[in-house]
Amino acid sequence: MPTPTHCPYCALQCGMTIKPGPVVEPREFPVNRGGLCQKGWTSAALLNTPGRLTTPLVKGEPASWEDALDHVAQRLQELRAEHGPDAVAVFGGGGLTNEKAYLLGKFARVALGTSQIDYNGRFCMSSAAAAGIRAFGVDRGLPFPVTDLANADAVLLIGANVAETMPPFVQHLRRAIDAGGLVVVDPRRTATAEQAAVHLAPTPGTDLALALGLLHVAVAEGHVDKDYLSRRTVGFEETWEVAARWWPEQVERVTGVSAADQRRAVAVLSRADNAYVLTARGTEQHASGSDMVSAWINLALALGLPGRSGSGFGCLTGQGNGQGGREHGQKADQLPGYRKIDDPAAREHVAEVWGVEPESLPGPGKSAYELLDSLGAGPRALMVFGSNVAVSAPRSAHVAERLAALDFLVVADFVLSETAVLADVVFPVTQWAEEGGTMTNLEGRVLLRGRAVTPPPGVRTDLEVLHELSVRLGQPAERFPVDEEAVFSELRKASAGGAADYAGISYERLRAGEALHWPCPDETHPGTPRLFLDRFAHADGKARMIAVDHRGPAELPDDDYPLSATTGRVLQHYQSGAQTRRIPELTAAVPEAFVEVHPDTAGRAGLGEGDVARVSSRRGEVLAKVRCVPGMRTDTVFLPFHFPGDQRANLITNPVLDPISRMPEFKVCAVRLEAVT
Ligand SMILES: Nc1nc2c(c(=O)[nH]1)N[C@H]1C(S)=C(S)[C@@H](COP(=O)(O)OP(=O)(O)OC[C@H]3O[C@@H](n4cnc5c(=O)[nH]c(N)nc54)[C@H](O)[C@@H]3O)O[C@H]1N2
Ligand SMILES: Nc1nc2c(c(=O)[nH]1)N[C@H]1C(S)=C(S)[C@@H](COP(=O)(O)OP(=O)(O)OC[C@H]3O[C@@H](n4cnc5c(=O)[nH]c(N)nc54)[C@H](O)[C@@H]3O)O[C@H]1N2
Ligand code: SF4
Ligand SMILES: [Mo]
């Protein structure tokens, strides 16, 4: 019998089945309707990849589980005794199941008593989350099911290359594409932009000016929905004061997008009956990313889209459990249920569920990059679950130095990632199809992933690792359950009454096939596929327009570094590549790093197609093969970040942070392009 499950990779969480072999096949499920991308199709190869870890490693040597666990518990206790509880830090991931994310946050706060925990979602959707909370009072990536998009006549996609990052998603845009209603904002002419009626290609890092310009045009041309603004929003006047200064020709000077194209984009959106505005990392991973998303939300609000049936605003969550991963407390400032760790009522509620005193819970810790940057000087030990920071964190040479400065690094993974290689102890854990758990997809829908195959001998689940360590650290055995359903039951209680309320979601209901989107406060509640239809989540029910202004990238091109570099993804590889670089079909398709360059720009640097280029910034340099792409802007180069060693795009990225979300500026820095002689 094929077992139904979901893909190990991105937030679309396509439905699939696994049958013995193991063989993966697509399955009818609303988000993918029988489709899969190449990564999904080849995902079964992950299950018996030759490099699979099956024994704990201590200093690179195989060890027994007992020895490895004892050793870790002892070292953590020593470091805590010597330097205090914050000497141990924890780094989680948005690919972890809800159960793991929840238990990891609890482990940090209760078993270790440390405030020093954050996770890779900080590098992912944090700017959109911050902007969503500011505007709407709650952060759920898509406040509507993906299938609603099928009725859209127009979609504005900003910094999202879904044709490569979520291929089965594109079918939901079919009507908008056919109606000439797809507008794409991306400095590159991507596979997604190719399908657009209007493609706006701003200089990287100038989206905020562009969003203000489109708002200006919408107001000037009378497309603003005044009735909606007065009923459902506050803050239009202040917002308009800023946008009024951004007339189209001024915006053209800053962004490079012609005034005519700005007007065409607004015309497409404003003549549609049903329209959506969607953002992704291209507009979010900036030092002003939160404000950029706020500016796009302002545009959507001015057009009267959010919370209107058949229209809306949303952000595309990235990782498999990117949504759930940011709700259950692995974030530095957070407790389960999307609660704030510095809110006395939240502390009291969660402490009671955990059976501890509220005063015993630590306060907020540092954001992901700040945490990594402080390693060695601050925390002396780091435990990593579900991230490969040696490749994916910004300014990665510096991050590698910080990792090396630690007294003790522990990594749980199922492959020897570039981060695991550096670890003092590696725990070999089960992966995706070998274990159970729930994931919350990009539409806030909670999905059950049942165990489909038997794990190889020698591996344990992340939940078992946390359990074993917590007992060794003196915790009562029942406080860290190993059964995922037991963990979920506790998570439900901890989330009850919070913004992300899972109290009414049970394994039983999920097994019965119910489509449950949070909030779902009790077992008779049908879940909430569409938020905001009647009101937004602020106390007065109204959305906030935030008056934000263009700041531009933190680092502008100059004589030494005359080009803008941006980074992102290709279809065949996932994130740091720890998983997909181990799949032969995917590495055959894209074996190594490359840099997309306009042929004229390449020529000026004495480079041609296939040559190895050195791309350098103030942080470092990366080696990549030149791909001449006539559709590129001549002032911009693009690098995927999936490759290790001296091909790491993050050797050059700028770790400057957004002041609100603490998101690093992955999407733009100043670089120089040279031939390697
Ligand atoms: N194949 C594949 N799919 C994935 C992933 C993967 O690693 N590989 N990862 C998953 C995850 S975690 C995430 S977060 C999502 C990310 O999904 P996306 O956000 O779609 O992916 P990116 O390639 O990071 O960025 C999207 C686009 O932003 C553009 N961009 C760069 N700078 C700017 C700018 O200043 N303004 C604008 N408007 N656009 C800009 C880039 O050219 C790029 O085409 O994908 C998910 N799906
Ligand atoms: N330059 C640049 N850098 C970027 C980005 C960019 O656009 N440009 N994007 C950023 C974004 S959006 C993201 S999401 C990050 C992602 O970057 P990473 O956090 O490095 O993500 P992955 O490569 O998915 O790493 C996950 C690791 O955990 C392991 N793993 C997977 N599932 C589990 C599990 O259940 N348990 C355990 N213990 N391990 C598991 C995998 O094998 C892998 O080694 O990268 C960020 N970095
Ligand atoms: S789109 Fe995402 S979830 Fe679907 S098959 Fe591809 S990687 Fe998996
Ligand atoms: Mo992401």
From TrEMBL:
SUPFAM superfamilies: ADC-like, Formate dehydrogenase/DMSO reductase, domains 1-3. GO terms for biological process: respiratory electron transport chain. GO terms for cellular component: membrane. Keywords: 4Fe-4S, Iron, Iron-sulfur, Metal-binding. Residues 1-49 form the 4Fe-4S Mo/W bis-MGD-type domain. Coiled coil: none annotated. GO terms for molecular function: 4 iron, 4 sulfur cluster binding; metal ion binding; molybdopterin cofactor binding; NADH dehydrogenase activity. The keyword Repressor does not apply. The keyword Zinc does not apply. It holds the Pfam family Molydop_binding. This is Assimilatory nitrate reductase catalytic subunit.
